[in-house]
Amino acid sequence: MLTGQSFIPEGIVKKVIILLHGYGANGDDLFDIGMTLSDNLPNTAIYSPNAPNAFEMGGPGYQWFGLPDLTRITLESGVQEALPMLLDYIDTLVEKHRIDHEDVVLIGFSQGCMMALSALYHRPFAAVVGLSGIWVKPGESEVEGDTPVLLVHGTHDMVVPFATLDLSHMMLERDGFSVEILSRPGLGHGIDNYTIDAIGEFLEPILL
Asked: Cα–Cα distances in Å, from 99 out to 11, 30, 185?
């Protein structure tokens, strides 16, 4: 079972937002974003777990999978290895709060975005938000592709190139998902306040 930061509102939990951090970070990294979003989303629990593996470069961080290189084979095999643990974590929260998977939102950054976009093919979520990441072949799909998706990417991202946004958009739409995209001029590999506001505007009509 993954561990990390969480916020459980008073009363009945009706929705859950799960934030998936990037390579070498931890659950604290995105937790404040979740708390900001929760201000306008009553009855919404926030979970920001640590990835399952200690960061291979050392230090206090975590990783969803190792990155000896950035080849497609490495990304696909890494996602497939980590995905079952993420799906088990999501299933556990659904059972804990007695909600449906359609009441769950995933927000993933960088490597966490790869995980979120892959999970999209295996559970029917309320929505998925992918930040500064890339679509990775998710394996055999288990659900229909009707979850709404928001993809955000900075034009000056030097870690995951901005050009990958078009690939992710194309592959998700090919598979039947409704996709909105947001390009952030001048933004590098990160998340700015404009993006946080845009996520809120995207999620509120879905969750309220």
From this structure: 14, 23, 38
Evaluate whether 62 touches 26 at the Cβ level (below 8 Å). yes
- As a whole number of angstroms, the distance between CA 59 and CA 85 comes to 22
| pLDDT tens figures, 153-163 | 999 999 999 99
CA distance 154 to 131: 9
Rounded (5°) CA angle 142-116-186: 140
> Is residue 18 a contact partner of residue 93, using CB atoms and an 8 Å limit?
yes
Indicate the angle between helix axes 72-97 and 111-119, nearest 10 degrees.
60
Domains defined along the chain, listed by start: 4-207 (3.40.50.1820)
Q: Using CA atoms in the order 194, 197, 198, 204, what is the torsion angle rounded to 10 degrees?
A: 180
Name the residue with tokens 């490597």: 111
pLDDT above 90 (res 141) = no
CB-CB contact of 44 with 134 (8 Å): no
Question: For residue 126, what is the DSSP state?
Answer: S
What type of residue sits at position 115?
M
